[in-house]
Amino acid sequence: MKKILIVDDEQISLMMTDHILSTSYQTYTASSGSEAIEIFDRELPDMVLSDLRMPGMTGMELHEHLKEQYQRPIPFMFMTADQDEETESKGFENGAMDFIRKPFRADVLLRRVDNILQTVEKLSALKSAADTDRLTGLLNKAASVEEINNLCHKSRGALMMIDLDSFKLVNDIFGHTAGDKLLIAFADILRSAVRANDLVGRIGGDEFIAFCQNISDESVIAEKSRYINDQLLAGAKRLLGNDMNIPLGASIGCAFAPDEGRDYATLFMKADKALYVVKQNGKHGYRVYRETEGEDSDKSAAASDITNLMTILSERNRKKGALVLPFEQFRLIFQFLCRVNVNYKRSVWLLLFSVNGENAAELSNKVSELLSGCLRQSDVVTSSSKNQFPVLLLEMSHYNIEVVIDRIMNRWNEDPELKELSIDYELDILK
């Protein structure tokens, strides 16, 4: 039920207006401007219906005070017995949505109040659409800046800049549709990481921002960082598959208000500096900006590019067994090993398994899994066709190769589906 605050210093008029509106709305009454401010702060009504001329604080002065205090338009309707059109005009100039002259009929008052509330709802819906990022449903950049600026002026809290690490690889490898799904899932993760009275927005492609009120403890930021990174990796595997090995994560730069500033621009600049340090130190973590850290931390961070690169290149969540690759990637490794062998003459074997049978094509993935499970992490498996499976074996003696082949054949014959297929092999060493 919508809330309406009625303000009138004339008790009879106040009671009559309350009687009319209380049949359709939840009403609150005040007989002065100061009392109205207390009730508004406590109840946050949907609109205010106020007498225009009151001792101490006029209706217009009350309106101006609430607009200044809350830094937003306040739905206001004035009641007045004054016939002065200039007063009415001034009220509209200050943002009043309607006037009604005393004495008024009950049905007219109800209709005008209803019109105001419907207009407010329509405007709110339009503003919400204009303020919302279409993909994720979070606030967009412009709305985030405005809302956070309002919050950090009047409350303590933590401004957090949140970047997705290695997100471009998702688009490159899995496509933009998968990338969009991951962004939507990540937005849900951020919503779950903050409270209902906190704010989250999307300010760029893979860049997000949050303001968490009344937080000044670094351990809270650390916990949020762990939660966001854990949930992101789990969500990515659900969307992209358990074999997804992109080094996905979230880097977070944080600045506390009011310690580091009371406006968005200042806090954003400092959180951005903290984020840069995270990005230069391996990513997937957080950093809180401290004014006393000086330039040394930035210099030390800049020296860690090699660590950052190794994180990007390294294989995450490495599985047991041989590395299973598409044929084109397998060919690149084979060509590289041929180059290495020119100078170092390493022991590199190429083993080719051929599988034949009625269901050979349908069981191709199962064959790859069996071969990988029988081999070492330093070996590589691929499929060059539906029935041929090349394998690279590094630093292995001929005797050990025979042991590996025996292991593969034993596993093959233990599987009721695979043992119905025939399998043979050829072996050669890189010269």
What's a concise summary of this model?
By secondary structure, the protein is an alpha/beta fold. The chain is 49% helix and 19% strand. The chain has 15 helices and 15 strands.
Q: End-to-end distance, in Å?
A: 84 Å
The percent of residues in helical segments reads 40-55%
Please outline the major beta sheet: 5 strands, parallel
Helix count, DSSP H or I runs of 4 or more residues: 15
Structural class: alpha/beta
Q: Can you identify the CATH class of the largest domain?
A: Alpha Beta
The low-pLDDT segments are 294-304
What letter string, H or E per element, gives the SSE order?
EHEHEHEHEHHEHHEEHEHEHHEHEHEEHE
Strand content: 15-25%
- Give the overall form: elongated
Rg over C-alpha atoms, rounded to the nearest angstrom = 34 Å
CATH-scheme architecture of the largest domain: 2-Layer Sandwich
* Nearest-integer average pLDDT: 88
Explain the overall architecture.
The protein has 15 helices and 15 strands. The protein is α/β, with parallel strands linked by helices. The protein folds into three domains: 128 residues, 3-Layer(aba) Sandwich (Rossmann fold), CATH 3.40.50.2300; 173 residues, Reverse transcriptase/Diguanylate cyclase domain (Alpha-Beta Plaits); 107 residues, Alpha-Beta Plaits, CATH 3.30.70.270. Strand 1, helix 1 and strand 2 form a beta-alpha-beta unit. About 3% of the residues have low confidence.
